[in-house]
Amino acid sequence: MEFQFPVELEEELEREAHPLAWAMKMGEGIGPRGLEMPSPELAQLIVSHLCFRHNHPSLWKFLHHAMSSGLLSPIHVLSLLTSRVIPQRRSQPEAYRLYLELLSRYALSFDASMTDSCKVKIIESLDAELQLSQTFGAQVLDLGHAFVLFFFSIVTSLIDSSLYDWGFRMTTVDKPSRAVASMDHQHMDVDSSGNYQMERNEHRQQMRQKNSFMAIEVLERLTESTKAIVLLRLVYLNMPEKFDGLLQRLQFLEGNNLAFSKSKSARQFLARLSGNIQKVPSLEYQLKKQQLIRMLVNLGSNNPVSRCNFGSGPSGCWVPFDIYMESAVDGKQLLIKSAIVILTEKIYTLKMFNRASWQETFLALWLSALRLVQRERDPLEGPIPHLEARLCVLLSIVPLAIANVLEDEAKLHPSVQESGYGNGMDRKGFGARKLALISSLQLLGNFSGLLCPPASITTGANNAAAKAASFISISKNAKDGLGSGSPTGGNMMHLIVEACIARNLIDTSAYFWPGYVPSSVVSLPDTSPSQRSPWSTFMEGAPLTDSLIDLLFTTPASSLAEIERLYLIALNGSLEERPAAAKILCGASLSRGWNIQEHVVSFVVKLLSPPVPPGHTGPRSHLIDHMRMLSAILFGASSIDTVHILSLHGVIPEVAASLMPLCETFGSLIPTSSNKSSTSDEPSIYMVFSSAFLFLLHEMGNSMKQLELASDKPIYIDYYPKLRAWYCQNRSCIASTLPGLCGRNPVHQVADKILGMIYLKITKPGASSGNSLTPSSGNVCGSPVKSGEDAGQMPMLPAWEVLEAIPFILEAILTACAHGRLSSKDLTTGLRDLVDFLPASLAAIISYLSAEVTRGIWKPVPMNGIDWPSPAATLPSVESEIKEILASVGVHVPICSSGSSPLMLPLPVAAFVSLTLTFQLTKSLEYIHAVIGPALENCASGYAWPTIISSLWAQKVRRWHHFIVASCSRSVFRQSKEAVAQILRSCFTSFLGSLHNSNSLSTKQNNINGLLGSQVLTPGVCPSLAPGFFYLRSYRMMPDIQRVNDVIIGLVSEYVQESAARWTSSDSPLLKSGQASLSFAAVRAKEVATLGASLLCASGGFQLVQELYCETVPTWFLSSKEEKPGRVSAVARILEGYAMSYMLMLSGSFVWGVEEKARSCSFSRRGRIIGIHMDFLARVLRGNISLCCDPATWKAYISCLVGLIVSCAPAWIRQVKPETLRTLAGGLKGWHECELALSLLERGGVSTIGSVAELINMFN
């Protein structure tokens, strides 16, 4: 229905009747005309007459009464006026003044309580009048969204108008507002309606000048409101480029203050306006909020209780650093993702969650890494990573992680410096992180107990201190540099500082820190002759003689140039120089060249993939020409410590990608008679293939699925047909038994041929055949041996063909032994001959025998010392020591023991164990031990087998006794779920104190050394292990790792309730203040949750965190729980909910990170899993699900979870469905947590802007 301007109203205008009467009269006429209130039609009609046909003061007053009474929508009227009045402000200064008055009163008035049709009309009108969709590049979704864009458009339009009126022009990041842009081609005193006559009225000219300043004054008053700041913050969060344009306008105004030189008040208004806008990114709401919830969410901020008291001991808030580092140096599993990247993410995460400064964060990081090194003082001797890997973390991984943090700060600086403003608008932050690093390094001197260097690197520490002393001695300020240092030489601090200087994190001014250079180092005369570095000799061009090679191998390089030259020699040198250079590269420069270790690692990886030389053509692979160099690099890089260093630097995917073509190429070559032996000094085709193949399997853990997840650019096994064929055959052999041998199949023919050679080698004169039975047919499988074959020679075949035949060979000889046709000794000898012939066959042997064990078709054989080796001599002591180790970590369950029954092992296990006992423990066979170690541990997981196998190996290698016994102790977790619960409880007890000790929880400092140990082994007849260390080495043995979640969440709940009861009890001898007691209880709850999250992430990573979000926590809320005698306080319930939310958030942050930009796979997984959990919460709030937990726990959980997400991981919110966010916000609003609801919605993206606009009416 068309709404005509009433004739009576025109008559009222002429008579100047009271505008309030008009408004009442018009309101009475709206209903009979079938129109709605507020009326978009009436607003359009009134404004069209007002501008400027009836530009009468009474009509402006009518607008005021109509908007205040709800007859007209304020934002609709103001948008109509904006598009009409601002362009005509020069010719209509009175109208512009009245418009500014209305704007100051109604710009923030918003009421969404109208019909949908009315909303649609107003939205369409706002969009058309202000061109919102075009300006902001997005469709206007709802009325609240339109309100936000409307207000921001008003702010920018008024600033642009004032700038234009004062004669200023600027280039902004976005286009000028439409109102101002339409006047760019006109004179200031000429309006857009074509009035070219100069305005000569002095009063109107003064009004124009005052209006420009009044616009700034209006904006200053508007932006004082929290509601306005919220609206602007929505633009800041969702359209940062538009907000940056606003900041540039303000900066331009401040930089051109000549216009305000005569107006002090104008300068003050502008300064306040700028201050108001700069509050937007750091807005902290001041709504009423539950005091306890606020304290929990902000725990750590300006709270000395939660900060690390480094003087008295480490704080529990930083234990994730220690747990991650200790887990990272475990040789059982290689890291696919770089420890540098992971540690960088943890630095940001823990700083944010702990509300800590950069100094505190860096200091905690250094202390954790120092504790990691100190634990290796009395290590377990065995085939595991040792001190080199731990020093790699301290002196290479940690400095590189800190370098990432400093680099991130440097990347933020240009944008801040360029505009003077940025999204953070914090100029003081630049360089703050580097200053914090320097401060944290200086504080390390307070921890002398952690700075004592291990014996093997004392010389390196002394050299670092001497380097600083030498630098000072030649400086003009030498006397100033001599501090009151200790009378000892160098320590770990000197090595740390050198590692930081080498990476440009700090400079040599560190040498002048008070007390940094010990006085003894400076004062002692240097009477020893200066020893020339072998690297100097090498860089001068000296040939690589044997003596120089040995010196370079044992002396770490000191510069990148030395490594680069070595790399070029390895690629392009003479035939003798190439392997020598590769060997040197994998020596001390890789294991102890911490200052350049990342570069050495990079060159090692490059050498595994030598480039194709220019002009190379033909089918012959260029890799063959590098065979000697590749053999040296494979041998050097495959040692246990070196592999783990490569793992820590995150190059395992690249190494695997390099090994696959090596395997494909050398496995397809037919060895010649001169290049077939795998035992000679010269590298053979078989040896190069075997080194690469076993190295690859070691890295991938026999699982090609790991390779698929290894990199953003996966290397597919399909690219390598031979490798793929073996992989598929290996899987089929594991899945089912093999068919019998037949002469028609080529693979069977190869197997038969090798079997014949093995048999002839076993039975030739001089060979010990034991009690073997001679097969009547001439060999173990019944096939005759061709007379032309030499009994001592194996056939010359490509390695892939040999590997393909291995399962059939094993099937035959194992069957022969089971039927008594082959003795146990000859079986072992035959297996060893096979490995000596092709070391890579060990992989097929392990795979086949492991699969046969699971089938259960082989009878056990007696380990009696006659047919098979006997463990009887050491078995009792091994079993006794296992019980003692388990008891020391709080595990009291029966262990696997054979008792008085005969000692038996299944034939495949006995054969494999006997084979492993034939290998010598030399450096040259470390690549063998790296493969058989995990396989042996898996085979030993049977009921009574661990102690038998451990006893056999303890007899063979006495110096590995403690390592073997400790490793065997872990097998208890395969058989007993109760053992898993007990070891986790011991972890909590060792760190937090015992629940059964009335003073423990309230007096004991959290104890990282109690959890992980101050050293790996506690000396004694039977060394003991710390519970946390033992758990981190054992959780991979647990078949039901998902149970860890249930145990941890139960322990967190139990400890929080108990500690809350202790801390808040009225008879507490420590504190009488209720607020202080509550703070301590909250800190303890946070530490409990931190420990739980750290152990959970270390145990199962993404898998367990996903289950925590999707299953464990929801089930915990839905399940009824047994209550202990006595009433649990409300505070304990609230702290329980807080601890659960904190553990959930922290564990998720460890796995996915808190940043907005993540890897695509991590980003999608994070969004999906967080969405599932949030949907569960929303369904409960809607009443679709009933809970069994206490309401106080549930409310605290949701409130704290939302608070933590908002403050620590706001990027997560945009991955949650808008309707879920609205439901959560509605629940929080019902609990009077409007601030949290608003914080949640404003970070939900464009789709929740409208909901925020509706919610801000809760502000006064």
UniProtKB/TrEMBL annotation:
It comes from the Eukaryota. One of its GO terms (cellular component) is mediator complex. GO terms for biological process: regulation of phenylpropanoid metabolic process. InterPro entries: MED33A/B. PANTHER family: OS07G0681500 PROTEIN. This is Mediator of RNA polymerase II transcription subunit 33A. It comes from Rubroshorea leprosula.
